[in-house]
Amino acid sequence: MFYLLSQLSPEVSILNVFRYQTFRGGAAVITALLVAFVFGPAVIRWLKSKQKTGQPIRADGPQSHIVTKQGTPTMGGVIMLAGIGIATLLWADLENRYVWVSLLVTMGYGLVGFADDYLKVTKRSSGGLNGRIKLLAEIAIAAAAAYWIHSIAAGPMASVLTVPFFKDVMFDLGLFFVPVAVFVMVSAANSVNLTDGLDGLATVPVMLAAGTFVVISYLIGNKVFADYLQVHYVVGAGELAIFCGAVVGAGLGFLWYNAPPAMVFMGDTGSLAMGGALGSVAVVTKHEIVLAIVGGLFVLETVSVIVQVASFKLTGKRVFRMAPLHHHYEKKGWAEPTIVIRFWIIAVILAIAGLATLKLR
Questions:
Q1: What is the mean pLDDT of the chain?
Q2: Are 47 and 75 in contact (CB under 8 A)?
Q3: 3-state DSSP call for residue 162?
Q4: Is the dihedral of CA 56, 327, 207, 130 positive or negative?
């Protein structure tokens, strides 16, 4: 649609509005939201018909989940993927290769997650896809994307790692760019996956992070704003504002069905895809470290698991009553909405902190 309208804009002046990334970013939000609203109910009905008993509940998880979440279907992430895909293809400049990189990672990780969810449902087990196969698939997708990003950004900015709050501090990673980029994308995907344990818990922080990167990618990809803010300029990165807008819209649409009590879970289909999307945008915009700030909630959840496992193996004792962290508070007796909303508040604060890095230098 963008290509068609841009071709007509010289003849119909009002169509010039479609050349603006800000307008198309807003259109992507609305389109992804509408896709979720239009197709969501049918997808949920189909998932329920195929998953008679819903997503398998962990036997070692909070006992309340066996009562409150039993029978809820998973794989709802396909609603988000449909919204992102359709909105991006309609409104983004498809000649921009960064757009295709982010779509590759998002859809690729979504496919890995779908395979994992499918095996969980068909085998009636919370195990899913073999862990090694799953990780290798994630690494392969991320490596292909990282190499592609490096080739697109050929030049002095191709392999650098920028440091927030310092305008002139950059590290040329050289040959280590690809491994670092792979680590960022794989870590982001699995961190969101670990956070997705309560109704709506991961959805809103993903939207907040994507919304933050709407701003970051737009400013980083605009030479005038980049020079004004004294931040690095990445040619073509501004088009990812449309992609991130699609992520926000898809998240909003999915939240309609995922709000407590959830009608559907996003599953690994959604959580891996959303995390991978954020990771790919962070790598393109050279804001990998800022992603760790904006997505600090995801980092905290992941660290809680690492600490729990390490402590138990080394000392035989657990630091938390249960990991990831949100389950610890469930075990302490916090109500699910209390945990979710408080974690959302933390995500808002971290998103603001991430945006502050653009100016505090």
A1: 89
A2: yes
A3: strand
A4: negative
Asked whether 239 and 93 are in contact (CB, 8 A), the reply is yes
Sign of the dihedral through C-alpha 94, 97, 102, 107: positive
> Could you report the per-residue pLDDT of 110-120, keeping only the tens digit for each?
999 999 998 88
- The Cα–Cα gap between 276 and 120 comes to 21
Query: Within a 13 Å sphere around the CA of 346, how many CA atoms are in the beta-carbon half?
Result: 17
Distance from CA of residue 322 to its chain's centroid? 24
Strand (E) or helix (H) holding 170: strand 170-172
Q: What local confidence, expressed as pLDDT, does residue 67 receive?
A: 43
The owner of tokens 């697109």 is 152
CB 59 within 8 A of CB 256: no
Q: Where are the domains of the chain?
A: 2-356
Quick one: DSSP state of residue 56?
P
Q: Give this prediction's pTM.
A: 0.92
Q: Give me the numbers of helices (H) and strands (E) for the chain, helices first please.
A: 15, 2
| 3-state secondary structure labels for all residues of 137-157 | HHHHHHHHHHHHHHHHCCCCC
* HSE-up of residue 69 (Cα within 13 Å, Cβ side): 23
Consecutive H or E run containing 105: helix 97-123
Cβ contact 110:189 at 8 Å? no
State yes or no: cis peptide before 73, omega within 30 of 0: no
Q: What amino acid occupies position 48?
A: K
Residue 93 DSSP symbol: -
Residue whose entry in the numeric block shows the structure tokens 């990672």: 105
